[in-house]
Specification:
By secondary structure, this protein is an alpha/beta fold. 45% of the residues lie in helices and 17% in strands. It has helices spanning 12-26, 47-58, 73-78, 80-95, 114-119, 137-146, 182-188, 200-230, 244-254; strands at 2-7, 33-39, 63-65, 102-105, 122-126, 151-158, 168-175, 241-242. It has an eight-stranded mixed beta sheet with strand order 3-2-1-4-5-6-7-8, sandwiched between helices.
Amino acid sequence: MLIGWFSSGRDEAARVLLKKTQKAIKEGIIKGEISFVFVNRAFGESEESDRFLKLCEELGLKTLSLSSQAFFPEEKLKDKERWRKLYHEEVMRLIEPFPMGVGVLAGYMLIISPPFLNRFPLINLHPALPWGPKGTWQEVTWKLIEKRERETGAMIHRVTEELDRGPVLSFFRISLKGPKFDPLWDEVEKGEVEDLKEKEKAQLLFRLIREEEEKREIPLLILTLKALSEGRIKLESPQALDLTQEIEDSLRRKE
């Protein structure tokens, strides 16, 4: 399986995700290879993306970059949809020589143009269950607290024009109940929704939910790519594979 990797390389998490995926490939867990890494930043734009680009070099990965910041900024101000189409047309030209069976959006911070989506199979990690909230992980987590949800998770889905709602390949669930969570929920229940972000216990609950979610996200992606490479998941007709138990087993082995 040939993987195209798309990232903005904006933080340490982007580097860790790439390193762990490449390690899983080298160890034979994922039966495939990263055909190329595409980064929408150029050297010199930020310290974080420079670190990411240097990591790609250290890992020996074919790296392609096209600065979205420097790409016709006047056009972006005038017509963002047209700019997005033009930018991704150029990205398509850059990646054309490199075969890709699946593209992974791994911290890629641009909205993909429809022609690009129609041409390439792309997958993305969204930090909520398939029926859960849309938005960034911060937005999702506060929505969970505001709605007093007692379960969350994350999913890998096909990228479509509908934000955070493409066909689901895989997911995991985590309970937000138990000795770690219940005392914090008890305190949160006493507050009004609009005051939640100001409450210390709600902030602690926010951090705890994110901590439990985050440590399962990399295993979710790696196990999903493994299942794709083994044919357990089909991109064309995904069956929403529940990887909860496999992820919990992998976390226990690391303890």
